[in-house]
Structures are given as C-alpha cells and as structure tokens.
Design goal:
Layout: E1 8-16, H1 22-30, E2 48-54, E3 57-63, H2 73-87, E4 91-97, H3 98-106, H4 111-130, E5 134-139, H5 150-157, E6 162-167, H6 176-185, H7 204-219, E7 228-237, E8 243-251, H8 254-261, H9 266-283, E9 287-295, H10 303-308
Parallel strand pairs: 1-3, 1-4, 4-5, 5-6, 8-9
Antiparallel strand pairs: 2-3, 7-8
Helix pairs in contact: 3-4, 7-9
The structure holds guanosine-5'-diphosphate and magnesium ion.
C-alpha cells in the first residue's frame, strides 16, 4: 500500500512493568524485529519506534523501557523515557503479565511475579494521577487456563483507568488482531508519519549495537548484563556489497572484561558469531563484525552514553 492511501496516523505507546512482553508485542505488531527481547528484566533501555500498518491506518508503536522503582541513574532515565513515550502518544496500551495476577489469585506468586505485580500497581496509580486513559492488554494467556483470568479482569476493570480490555499472547499471536484494531481506531486522521517501507525509527548503528547487547544479555548472568553497554564505533559499506561493522562492549571493571571475553576469548567469539548471523539477515547482505571489549569505570555517569541512546542524563 502506498503512502497516499493512509488516512489516519498516530503514536501508540506500550507501557508496563519489566518483562511484561512489551518488546515482543511491538515486534509482532510491526511484523519485524525492531526491539530486542530477552527473559531478563530491563532489556529495553530507550523508547524504540516501530511502524505498523492496518488498513488505511499507520500506527507508530513506541516500545518503552519497563516502569519500576528506579534508583540508578540509568534506571531513572529509562523510567522517565517510558512515561515520556506515553505523554506524547495518541493511545496508551498498559501491558501486564497476566500470569502473575493469576498466580496471585490462585496460589503463591513467585518473587519475580510479586515484583511484577508491584510494578503493575505502581503504573495503575500513576495512570490515575495523570488522568491517562489506557487500553489494558493482559498478556501471556498461553500460560494458564482462560477461566482463571475472569476475576483478574474484574478487579482491573474496577480501577477505572481502562477504556478497553484485551487478552493476548504477544508471543503466540492470539488476540493481537483485535488489540491492533482497537489501537488503529484511536489514531487521528492525517497523513502517514513515516514512509510505508520503513519499519523502525532507529539508526542502523544503534539497532546493530542492540542486537549484540541482546546476545550478551542472553549469555551473561546476574548483574553483569546491566553493567555493560555496546556502541557501534565504525560502519563501512564495502564495494563488494558487504558491510564491516566494528563495535565496542563497554564494561565497568577488569573482572567483567574477563567474563565477557570468556576463556581464551571463546565467549566474545560466540557472541560475535550469533550477532553477525542476525545482522546478516536484518541487513540482507554479508556482514563482517568486529567486537572489542573496553573497560570504562564511569560509563554510566557519562553524558555521552545517554545522548547516544536518546536518554536524559539529569533525572
Ligand atoms: N509465555 C509467554 N511469554 C511471553 C509472551 N510475551 C513475551 N513473553 C516472554 O517474556 C519475556 C520478556 O519479554 P520482553 O518482550 O523482552 O518484555 P519487555 O521487558 O516488556 O519488553 C521474554 O522471555 C518473552 O519471550 C507471551 O505472550 N507468552
Ligand atoms: Mg523490552
């Protein structure tokens, strides 16, 4: 469909607790991978815009960092950016991991589920304070029998902040069409905001760094994934149609550098292999990827780090 056929266009922010499935839902709505997904909390660090189209409507999906009680500077900046995404949107979807609510109603929720419930309740309070009306999407319905969700739906609709409630599985795709139609119906009339063939509003250098960070997050444990960042230092289009990408993994301590490298450099080599395979698919051309590891004790306190990914430093 060409640009002229678009009659409505606007922004829809997906907000919610860490690990609710916001990035999974964003990728599904867009129909391409624009945001990285892991089983770990706080994977997404800055709002990512993905462009979706339903009929004559263009919806710019704003995937946001998780909302939680943040203390570190980077965390505070992430939560601020999440609410910033919601403020600017024509439509806000509050995505909840419904399996945590079901666990609370039917048995003993795990520690992670209790965290997620606390964060959900914090979001509800803030929606009330701001007077923001949202669409509620209860996610991960593939994890429990559907009749168990009814008391949860009742409790949440009683909060008075939701215009509409949907049950979905962002991962499997169930229920996403109806949610998508509801989002589309809330978009204002107007021309397309992005060219129809563009899926993400994110510089390729940044997206490429995110792909490598995803592979690192999946392989590293405990605090380490949160103590590193990845930057694309160099991007060179070659005459033979391939691209040479040089990236640096920045860690805070020498000990972390050793862990990222792995025995004899084996881990970083494997990360590089996985990232290169995915980048080759994304860019549809051969990729030569070079990864380096650098120690910078103060990277989380440097203004440039934040500017580079579009976050505010002074929050
Ligand atoms: N079972 C199940 N898992 C899901 C679903 N949606 C997301 N997940 C998983 O939940 C985890 C967090 O997903 P992610 O999209 O990164 O969450 P975000 O932090 O809210 O962006 C990942 O392991 C996903 O695979 C779903 O509908 N069902
Ligand atoms: Mg995410």
């Amino acid at each position: 469909m060409s640009e002229i056929d678009i009659k409505r266009a606007g922004f829809c922010a997906i907000i919610g607790a860490p690990n609710a499935g916001k990035s999974t839902l964003t990728n599904r709505l867009v129909g391409a991978k624009v945001a990285i997904v892991t089983h770990k909390v706080q994977t997404t660090r800055f709002p990512v815009r993905g462009v979706a189209q339903t009929g004559d409507t263009q919806v710019v999906i704003v995937d946001t960092p998780g909302i939680f009680a943040a203390k570190r500077r980077l965390d505070r900046a992430m939560v601020k950016a999440a609410w910033g995404g919601a403020d600017e949107a024509d439509c806000v979807v509050h995505l909840i991991d419904a399996s945590a609510w079901v666990a609370e109603k039917t048995g003993r929720p795990s520690a992670a589920q209790r965290h997620s419930l606390e964060d959900d309740r914090r979001v509800i309070e803030q929606l009330k304070e701001a007077g923001t009306r949202a669409i509620l999407a209860l996610n991960k319905i593939d994890l429990f029998p559907h009749d168990q969700i009814l008391p949860v739906m009742q409790a949440l609709s009683g909060e008075g902040v939701y215009e509409d409630i949907f049950m979905i599985s962002a991962d499997k795709g169930d229920g996403v069409d109806k949610l998508e139609a509801a989002i589309a119906s809330r978009m204002p009339e107007g021309p397309a905001l992005y060219p129809p063939d563009q899926v993400a509003d994110l510089p390729m250098r940044l997206l490429a760094a995110e792909v490598t960070r995803e592979k690192l997050m999946l392989r590293l444990h405990q605090e380490l994934p949160y103590q590193l960042t990845v930057e694309t230092e160099n991007w060179e289009e070659r005459a033979d149609g391939s691209v040479r990408i040089q990236q640096v993994v920045i860690v805070g301590r020498d000990g972390h550098k050793a862990m990222v490298l792995g025995k004899g450099g084996s881990l970083i080599k494997e990360i590089g292999r996985q990232s290169r395979i995915e980048l080759t698919q994304m860019l549809e051309r051969p990729v030569h990827l070079f990864l380096f590891v650098k120690v910078d004790e103060r990277w989380q306190e440097r203004r440039e780090t934040y500017r580079g990914i579009g976050l505010e430093f002074d929050v």
